[in-house]
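Possible regression after last week's pipeline update?

I re-ran a chain I had predicted before the update to compare outputs. Posting the input and the new output here so someone can diff against the archived version. Not blocking, just want to make sure nothing changed silently.
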Amino acid sequence: MNGLVEGAVALGYGFASALVPVVNAEAYAVVAGRPGEYAVIAVVALAVGQTAGKLLLFEAARRGTGRLARRLARRNRSGRAAARTARWTEPVQRWLSRRRTGLPTVLLSASVGVPPLVLVSVAAGTAGLRRWEFAVACLLGRVLRFAVLALPAALA
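New output (post-update):
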């Protein structure tokens, strides 16, 4: 495959893997790291596709925050359930809303996978983290993760 096709396939695969949990971007990064001149293109395109998909989740959470809260409030008539939900969501939102703690959390999640990036993406969207800061941290972490996974195969 030439570089353009390899990049387009990796971009699409990365986007799909960001939204569909059974599509594994890490496995694709290992396969893309095979010896060849297009490994770097594939890794970067895969990271860009993943970041675009996570941004879609981020934006959906950001725009749907009010509607989801109203729907949950209607559904949860008991005060205990609402208090339990607030006990877990409020500290997470405070943590991710601060740049000093939110951005390193996104970077850690994108590069290591703990906490899961899909959960961090949704939580960061509801916490009000800036879109471009989330995107940069996510992209850097994803490039780092995929490069580390592709490197052994590329050096073999």
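Follow-up from reviewer: compared with the archived run. Residues 39-75 form the longest helix (37 residues). Marking as no regression found.
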